[in-house]
Amino acid sequence: MTTTNTLDGRIILIVEDEYFIAADLRRALQSRGAEVLGPVSNLRDGLRLCEAEQLDAAILDVNLDGVLSFPIADRLAERAVPWTFLTGYDDWALPDAYRVVPRVAKPFRSDMILSAMERLLHSGDAA
Amino acid sequence: MATQAEGSVGGNVVQAINRIFSEALSARTEEQLCQLVLSVAEDVTGASYSLMGEINQATDRLDNLAISARGLQIFADHDATFTTDFMPAGFVLRGLFGAVLNEGESLIANDPANHPERGGAPDRHPPIDNFLGVPLTRGGRTIGMIGLANRPGGFREWDRDAIEEMAPAIVQALFSKRAEEALRTSEVRYRTLFERMGQGYLEGQILRDVEGRAVDFRLLELNPVFERLLRIPVDEAIGRPIREVLPDVEEFWIETYDRIVRQGVNSWFEHEGLLSSKWLQVHVYPHSDDRFVALYEDVSERRRADRALRDNRQRLRSVLEGIPQLVWIAGERGEWTWVGPQWMSFTGLSMEASLGLGWLDALHPDDRAGARDFWQEAGNRGALEMEGRVWHAREGRYRWVQTRARPVRDDAGAIVEWFGTSTDIDDLRRLQERQQLLVAELQHRVRNILTIVRSVFSRTIEAGGPLEEISDHFKGRLDALARTQVVVTNSVSGLVDLENMIRDELLSVGVNEGPGVEIEGPDVALPARAAESLGLAIHELTTNAVKYGALKVPGARLTIRWTANLLYDGKKRLVLQWVEQGVPALPVKPSRQGFGTELIEEALPYRLGAETALEFRGGGVRCTIAVVLPAEETAIVGWRDE
C-alpha cells in the first residue's frame, strides 16, 4: 500500500549540484510516481523553475557549489510550496531563519527522502 | 621741723629704697617681692600689718598681690579658718581703699570707724584702728595701692610722705620682677624648643677673605639636633668655622648661605647632604652682619615616600599605556574624563574630540544607540560589558571591540566614575567565524562525498557482472575519488594541477608517458569540484583503455592533450582531448549506458556545465571535454568573511 505510487502525479522540483545525488533523487521520486522538475544544479535555474505553474513540493540542496539556495526557499515560502532541505550541514551552520525547516541530512537513503516528501505533501493536503 | 622731718624722711626712704632694689632682685616670686616691700614699709612707718593690691584691668576690682608676713600672722591669729592657700581678690573699689584708688591720692584715717569714706572691713578681718593708703601709679594711672594698718598712735603725714616716696621704686621693682619673670619664662620656653625641636637650628656668620668672597661660615649657635644631623658634638663646634669642624663640608652650603645672606631674603631649599646622605629641607633667615639662622629638617622619609609614589604612578602609567587595550575613565553618564593613548592611535580621534561623549563618533552608527542606552542604566547594573564596532583609523574600517567597565565607588559605595577597557576582538571574531565556516565546509564535503560514494556504489552494482569485477571497478573509482581528495585537502589553495592528476591516474594502472602515451598541455590549476569530476572521468577513460583500448593493445597510441584559453572576464576555457589510435577491433559499446559514459555525458555537463563528446569508433575512443573554469578559486567558494 505504501510502496507504490504514494507520490503519484505530484510535481517535485529538485535543486542539487551533485549529479549523482540528483540522479538518485530523481529515480527515487519517479519510482513513486512523482513527476520531477529538474534536477537543476544552480541557483539561477532553481529560481527559474520554482516559478513553474504546477509545483507541489521541492527538495533543495543548501550549498549549490558555494552558493546558498535560500533565495529559492524564500520564493517557495511565498508561493506556499512546501520544501525540504537536503544538506550536509548541522543546525548551527545554518542561519536561524532556516533552522526550523524540515531537513534531510546527507548522506541519506532514498526511503528517508521519500518519507520526508510524503510527510510534506500530506500535511500540505491537510492544510 | 618740716625740714628736719623731710631730711629724716629722705634718709630713711633712701635706705628703704636701696633695700627694695637690692633684696627685690633676690626674690624668687612676685609675691615674695611684694612681701619684702611691705615689710620695708612696715619697718619705715611702724605699721602693724599691711597689704598690697593691684587693680585688675579686666574686672576693675582690686586683687591682692600680697599680705605682709606680720599681716598673715595677725589674720591667722584672728581667724582660725584663715588660709594662705589663695590670695583674696575681687574687692569692689569702695570704702577707704576705694577712696585711695578712685581719687589716686593717699589717705590717712586715724579714726576709720568714723571716716566719711568708711565702708567697713570684710568679715573676719582683724580690727583696723587706723589706716594709711598710698596709691601705686604707673604712667599717670593708678594701678594699685599699699595699705598699712594699726600704727600705734596713728599714722603721721611723715609716714604718708615716706611711702609716697617709696611708691615709684616699688612699682619699678614690681615691674622689673615681672619683666624678668616673663623673660625667664620665654627663655625657658625657647630653650626647650631649641633643644627639643626636631629641626636643627644653626646660627652662622659668613666668613670672607680680603676680597669679600665667602670662604667659610662660623657656627654661632647649634642645637643638639646637629649631633644627629651632622654627627658632630655641638659644644665642640660652637664658635668655630665650619671648615674646621667639618673639613670636607660641601662647598654648596657656604655658597648657598652666602647667596641668601647677600640677597637678604628668607629662603628655603632642599638638598641631599653628601655627608649625612639625608635629604634636608633648610629654611634660611638672613639678618645683619652676614649672619643667618638656618633651620634644618630631615625630609628623607618624605622624599622617599614621594619618590615611591612617583615611581608607583610612573609604573601604573607605563602599564596603562603599555597594555594593548584601549583604556578610559568615564563619569556616570558615560562621559569620558580621561582616555589613554591607545584609543587615540586606534581611532585617530584626539583627546579633546574623544572626551565627553565625543567617543561615540568612533562607534559604528548602528552601535551608537545601544551604547547610549547602556549608559542610561549603567548605574543599576554595576558593571558594563558590550561588544561593538569601533573605527580603526589605520585600516580605514570598523573593528569589533569588546568593552568592559567597572565602577569606582566612594567610601559610601556610590559610583564616582567608571574605569573601562576596550579589547580588539576583531581578529578573534574573524578567526572564529572562519573556523566555523571551515568546520561547516568540512561537514558539507565529507557528507557530500559519502553521498556520492553511495551513489557510485549502487551504479557500479547495477552494471552487473562477476562480483570480483564489480569489486575492482568500485575500488578503482573510490581510489580515484580519494586521490583527488588527498590533493585538494593537501594543497593550501585547494587547487589541483591537471597534468599531475592525469599522470597519477595513469600511474595507478602502471602506465608511464612513453612512445605510446603522449601527455601535453599548459599548466592548469583545477578547483576542487572540477578536479573531482574530471578525475573520475579520466579514471573511467583510463580503465576502459586498459581493458579494451590503447593501453591494452600493443602498438596503439594514447594522446591526452589540452588547451586553456583565457576568456574576457578572467575565466578560462579548458578543452581536453583524449584520443586513442591504433586500436584494431571495434571496441564494444556497452548495450546499457555504463557508469563512465553517464559520468562523461551526463554528470560533467550537469555538475560543471561542461560540453562533452564521447565516441567509440574505429581506432579507439575519442573524448572531448570543454569546461569553463572560474577566474579564481579558493578552498571555500562563495563564502565571504564579512
UniProtKB/TrEMBL annotation, chain A:
Which residues get modified to 4-aspartylphosphate?
A: D61
Q: Which UniProt keywords apply?
A: Phosphoprotein
Q: Which InterPro entries match?
A: Bact_response_regulator (IPR050595), CheY-like_superfamily (IPR011006), Sig_transdc_resp-reg_receiver (IPR001789)
Report any Pfam family annotated for this entry: Response_reg
An annotated GO BP: phosphorelay signal transduction system
Return the Gene3D superfamilies for the record: 3.40.50.2300
- Phosphoprotein found in the keyword field: yes
Query: Residues in domain Response regulatory?
Result: 11-121
Name it: Response regulator
From TrEMBL, chain B:
Location of the PAS domain: 312-382
Q: So what EC number does this one have?
A: 2.7.13.3
> One Pfam family from the UniProt entry?
HWE_HK
Question: Domain named PAC: which ranges?
Answer: 384-437
First and last residue of the signal peptide? none
Q: Which keywords does UniProt give here?
A: ATP-binding, Chromophore, Flavoprotein, FMN, Kinase, Nucleotide-binding, Phosphoprotein, Photoreceptor protein, Receptor, Repeat, Sensory transduction, Transferase, Virulence
Q: Which InterPro entries does this one have?
A: GAF, GAF-like_dom_sf, HATPase_C_sf, PAC, PAS, PAS-assoc_C, PAS-like_dom_sf, PAS_4
The catalytic activity, as recorded, is: ATP + protein L-histidine = ADP + protein N-phospho-L-histidine
The source's domain of life comes to Bacteria
Q: Which CDD domains match?
A: PAS (cd00130)
Q: Give one GO term, molecular function aspect.
A: photoreceptor activity
PANTHER family reported for this sequence: HISTIDINE KINASE, TWO-COMPONENT SYSTEM SENSOR PROTEIN
- Protein name according to UniProt: histidine kinase
Q: Which organism is it from?
A: Sphingomonas metalli
